[in-house]
């Protein structure tokens, strides 16, 4: 089993971790609805690549 010869300093540890940061999510705008959504996922309106793939439930306005 490999064991390090000497302790790593906090500066070296920080240099190693500098590439572990989170990247911004890839966003896309649907051409039909104009909704912003994550890439390769259905928008909240139910559109994917300009086509409606999920029907929205109808709301009854009964008073």
What is the structure about, briefly put?
By secondary structure, the chain is of the alpha+beta class. The chain is 13% helix and 16% strand. 2% of the residues are buried.
Average pLDDT, rounded to a whole number, is 87
Number of helices: 1
Estimate the global geometry from the Cα principal axes: elongated
Strand count: 4
How many angstroms separate the termini? 73 Å
Approximate helicity band: 10-25%
Q: What are the low-pLDDT stretches, counting only 5+ consecutive residues below 50?
A: none
The proportion of residues in beta strands is: 15-25%
Largest sheet: 2 strands, antiparallel
**Radius of gyration computed on alpha carbons:** 24 Å
Protein structure class: alpha+beta
Strand order of the largest sheet: 1-2
Order of helices and strands: HEEEE
